[in-house]
Structure formats: C-alpha cells, structure tokens
Amino acid sequence: MTRNKGFTLLEMMFVIVVLSLLVAVAIPRFRGVRDDAEVQSCRMRLANIATAEEMHYAKHGRYTENRNSDLTPYLKNIDRLMCPKSKEPYIIAATDSTYKVSCPSGHGHIDEGAASWE
Ligand SMILES: [Zn+2]
Description:
- The protein is rod-shaped.
- It has one domain.
- It has a four-stranded antiparallel β-sheet, with helices on one face.
- It is about 50% helix and about 10% strand.
- It is α+β, with helices and mostly antiparallel strands.
- Zinc ion binds next to loops.
C-alpha cells in the first residue's frame, strides 16, 4: 500500500486558519507597543529640551528667548523640537526666570523642571 506524501486540503486550510488567528492577535499588540514607544520618545525629547533650558540658564542667567538659536548649542539635533508621534512642534514658553515646555498632542509638559505626563 502506497501513501501520497504531502498535505491534504483540510490540513492546509487548518494551518492557514491558525496562522490567520495568530496574525490577527499579534498586529494590534505590535501597534500598541509602537504607540507607547513614540509617547516615551516624546517625553524624552521634552526632558532634553528642559535640560537645554537649564543649561542656558546656568550660562546666561535667564531662559531662552529664541528657542531655535538659543537652544542649538545644548541640543544635538535641533530638528527634534517636534513630537515624534504627531509631528507638531513643541510649545516652549520661556521668560527670563521661568519656562514651560509642552507637547501640543498632550503627551506631557515640563514646567521649570517639574514634569507632568498626561
Ligand atoms: Zn508628543
């Protein structure tokens, strides 16, 4: 008695259904992880900008007036003044003695060193 080697149509359909279920479960989870990573990246950028403001204050005795030119010496990449998730520029409100850096998408803000993550 000889037996054909290979899979039957029923076996192949079963494998395809199982793989489809695995993909259907995995894709939303990966998407959520990516969103969380972008929010964390946004908060790190806010912290870097706050550190740059503090460094500017330590050197000049006041916070920045023109964020692009004044923060350039303290930030490695000045193009990172925007939220990585929404691509909107950060709101930097600085006076001589106070500053506040916030994400326009609501991922958080830093107010004179005190961070608040929404
Ligand atoms: Zn953001």
